[in-house]
Amino acid sequence: MKILVLNAGSSTLKSMLFEIEQAPPENPPAPLWQGKIEWRGNEAQINSRNNHGDQHSERVSLPRQGSLLRLLDSLWSGRARAISSPTEISAVGHRVVQGGLKYEEPVLLNTEVESAIASLSQIAPLHNQTELEVIRIAREKINAPQVAMFDTGFHRRMPDAAVVYPGPYEWLSEGIRRYGFHGINHQYCAERAAQLLRRELTSLKIVSCHLGSGCSLAAIQNRRSVDTTMGFTPLEGLMMATRSGSIDPGLLTYLLQRDGCTSQELYEILNTKSGLLGISGLSSDMRDILAAMKEGHARATLAFEIFIHRLRSGIGAMAAVLGGMDALVFTAGIGENSPEVRAAACANLRHLGVALDEQKNNGPSSDRIVSAADSAVGVLVIRAQEEWAIARECWKIASSIGRAAQPTAII
């Protein structure tokens, strides 16, 4: 069974094609094909490659719909193709950022589900509308069941104390609450950590650190999220690449009154002009920040120190919610590829039982345990595998459809 996954963000789209035979294997297999679009206004950089190493790359001046069609065409035509026709695809899986209160588990897409996703676009305007457009285009090109998996789903059963904001209680009935995000990857990393530690997932208290362009932590116990740092929107919590993370809400009213900012201007400041970029004045990329630090750039150093300060503070808070931790996981672009961030984050966590092995921490980028032999907490680096997590769920749903369609034997 060939399953295509389309993971759309606000400015990028990642896609992978997997082949799953009898059942999903324990370890993620290499995809048959993978593609990526990076959008900059009406320009798009499209890259794809198949598992034979054939590659396709082009920069086009097209709207999002046109660039997505070009990417899909490269899957079954051209140099980097992996299949001969879209009819070979058995199911299409989509990451949807905001599932609201209704959707916890992956679901088969239909008119009702898509209407619900559209209604939640007010909460996640940069994501849900893009994802709906991708769903529509995929349906036009591929005649196969489509499945949605929700970033908020894993956090759906957090306790009320973690969910309800301490504002007017009426907010809760209006849907103003903490939803949490990055749930697909937090859930996958918890399962993968249990495999690597050779422990039952139900026995583990895990703090998962998703550190990429967007950053969030999750406290995981008994297979479920019990707290997380992102909230009503993905802006809450840790310092990020261009997002501020949590700041004093009184500052926002101060800026509105002092400068007469519009809500849109304030939105852009907090989401696109803050974080690593806003403090350093150089870049939103942690690699650039680290390079500038080595050259003595003061603002880059400050950006790194703020990032680490808030990360340590968040890890401590998650550990307190759990009553201690058995595993600390680093994942996503920064979490996987920056030994400097991991070392700095763990440096002040000895009192929580965390000790890094320097050699392991500086080792190759792969799923691995990087804690010292005497560490009471297992520290792990786990590659983000949202596409594979979505593909597994698609396989389950598509398989159940296939079984339901089989004729019952007459005895």
Q: Describe the biggest sheet?
A: 8 strands, mixed
Rounded Rg: 22 Å
Average pLDDT for all residues? 91
End-to-end distance, in Å?
Answer: 30 Å
Domain module tally: 2
Individual helix count = 15
% residues in beta strands: 15-25%
Please identify the top-level CATH class of the largest domain: Alpha Beta
Structural class: alpha/beta
| CATH-level-2 architecture of the largest domain | 2-Layer Sandwich
Low-pLDDT residue spans: 405-411
Morphology call: globular
Within the largest sheet, what's the order of strands? 5-4-3-2-1-6-8-7
The number of distinct β-strands equals 14
Q: Please trace the helix and strand order, writing H or E for each element.
A: EEEEEHEEHHEHHHEEEHHHHHEHHHEEH
Query: CATH H-level name of the largest domain... which superfamily?
Result: ATPase, nucleotide binding domain
Share of helix, binned: 25-40%
CATH topology of the largest domain: Nucleotidyltransferase, domain 5
Please summarize what this structure is.
With 411 residues, this protein is α/β, with parallel strands linked by helices.
Write up what this structure looks like.
It is a single chain. With 411 residues, the protein is α/β, with parallel strands linked by helices. It has 2 domains: 149 residues, 2-Layer Sandwich (Nucleotidyltransferase, domain 5); 188 residues, 2-Layer Sandwich (Nucleotidyltransferase, domain 5), CATH 3.30.420.40. Helices cover 38% and strands 20% of the residues. Helix 1 crosses helix 3 and helix 10 crosses helix 11. The chain is globular. The protein starts with a strand and ends in a 6-residue tail after the last helix.
